[in-house]
Amino acid sequence: MTRNRIDVTAGLVFLGIGVLAGAHVLTALEIGTPGAMGPGFFPLTLCGLLVLFGLAIIAGGRLDELRQLAPINPRALVAIVAAPVVFGMTLRGLGFVPALVLSCGLSVTASRQIAPREGLCIVVAVTAFCVAVFHYGIGMAIPLLNPAFFG
Question: Which burial class, exposed, middle or buried, applies to 112 when counting CB atoms under 10 A from its CB (0-12, 13-18, 19+)?
């Protein structure tokens, strides 16, 4: 069984970024509990998902010898990896909504098949859904807009 180098490399990139960003979140932000989430809870969850995603890609690279791979779009790889990092870096400074808009907007640029108007609709829909669920649904303690920046 041979490893697919592209999958393993992508998995290692996701794994490394997830571990580094998670370590930063653990040292810089208050995590809280699932009942009383702190500002670092959601970014840490995203880092954990990124690590799991990286591990799954590495495992898939070992098992998927017969599948032909399409070339990796470097823009998509950078956009998808950078989106949770941008979210984590802007959440405290700008607030929940601007962090969501920036990270979703960055994620939408990963696909060449999404037109700008469709991308804008996706950003608005995802932001509205996340605000409804996290702010109004579970009462997350992060302001929608940082009053120091937007006040």
Answer: exposed
**Residue 100 token pair:** 């969501």
Q: Which residues 6+ apart lie within 8 Å of 115 measured at CB?
A: none
CA distance 103 to 107: 6
pTM of the predicted model over 0.70: no
**CA-CA-CA-CA dihedral for 136, 18, 31, 37, to nearest 10:** 20
pLDDT per position in the chain (151 positions), as tens? 455 788 888 888 999 999 999 999 899 889 888 888 888 898 999 999 999 999 998 888 777 655 666 677 888 999 999 999 999 999 988 999 999 999 999 999 998 899 999 999 999 999 999 999 999 999 888 889 988 776 6
| Sequence-separated (6 or more) residues with CB below 8 Å from residue 35 | none
What is the distance between the alpha carbons of residues 90 and 96, in angstroms, rounded to a whole number?
8
The Cα 56–Cα 72 span in angstroms is 17
User: Which tokens go with 105?
Assistant: 């907007």
